[in-house]
Amino acid sequence: MKKIFYLFFVFTMLIGCHESSNPSKIMAFDKIEYVHSFPKSYTLSNEKLVDWDLIGMKQFRIVDSLLIVSTNDKNGFWSFFLADDLSFKGSFIKQGQGPNEFIYSPDIINSSFQREKDLLIAYIYDFQTGRLYKMNVDDSFSTQENILELTKDNLPPFLFDFAIIDDGIFYCKEIANEQTQQLRYILNHGEKETPIKFDRLNKAQVAKGEDFNIISSITVKHPKKDIIVEAPITLNQINLFSCMGELQKTICVGDKLDNIGSIENKIQWMRIYTYGAVRTYNDFFAVLRIGDDKKTFQTTRKSLPIIQLFNWEGEPIAEIKVNRFITSFDFDLRNKYLYTLDSPTDEFYRYNISSILNDIIPNLTKK
């Protein structure tokens, strides 16, 4: 009898080991670094409500000297403000199906902003059509007209992630295999390439008919370099990699990587939301840790979110505990403010975090 029990125990352990090592149930690189704590911890307080007449705020982003808010306003999806005094500069990008119009508000976070001949330019990917537009932001302010031109009309539509790596080189991610997988690849001057490093992540798969969001992620590129941050919305990890270079590592915030199969075995309401937003800066990146299960997050919300900061080697820098519920954030490093948005309530707040940044930034610039 003891022998039978022992064999059953060994068989059970072998099944468990096999499942945990199944590459289709782990969305991570071979190199994994575990984070159990952060060197510094701060708690926010003394926030100031930003009271402006914007309804249906979805996302926002601070670029250069501007604060840009994405809304549901069909007459101008993006509203621009000066970051220092929040004075209004104009609303642009209209809804429609005509030339230079968008059916839905384009993704403001993954649009590429850069200076060209001292003018601020935004490159905007249209999810529905696969077109890439170039917006002259400064000229749009001067004329109060949307100065927009089509630069590429043959990109794949419906990409779940898109980033400009270099001139004619794009990072793409799309759903495949009956919505059970997501495939990452490079579009190099029209040619589709899949670096070997992507194979490990691309193998991750949910069962047919399962919720695809188990392997969905928020992906944002470094402002200047070829480095991608990928934060899954239900897994306790962050993937950090370059498209054309050698960098590839996974940061696990916890003792053990989340297993896709284990999450599939949970009731949908009990699955944990891990990350809700990603922002990137020259010296560090930051992610918004949620921590509530799906039912709690969509009804009462209990866990106050935490902003986690990492350097570009993936090392933890600090955590900032937020004193209210939020869905997105961004740092105004020039004026030393933190802005937060709670999309369900349209509440927008500003925090003076000069003391926190003065404590963090010197350590970053030494690296």
What does this structure look like?
- This protein has six helices and 26 strands.
- The chain has 367 residues and is of the alpha+beta class.
- Strand 25 and strand 26 form a beta hairpin.
Rg:
22 Å
Mean pLDDT, to the nearest integer, reads 91
Helix content: 10-25%
Principal-axes shape call:
globular
Task: Write the SSE topology.
Layout: H1 2-20, E1 32-35, E2 40-43, E3 48-49, E4 59-63, E5 66-70, E6 78-82, E7 88-92, E8 112-116, E9 119-125, E10 132-136, H2 137-143, E11 148-152, E12 161-166, E13 169-176, E14 181-188, E15 191-193, H3 196-202, E16 217-221, E17 228-232, E18 237-241, E19 248-253, H4 260-264, E20 275-280, E21 285-289, H5 294-298, E22 306-310, E23 316-321, E24 328-332, E25 337-342, E26 347-352, H6 354-365
Which terms would index this structure?
367 residues, alpha+beta, five-stranded mixed beta sheet, 37% strand, disordered N terminus
Tell me briefly what this model is.
With 367 residues, the protein is an alpha+beta fold.
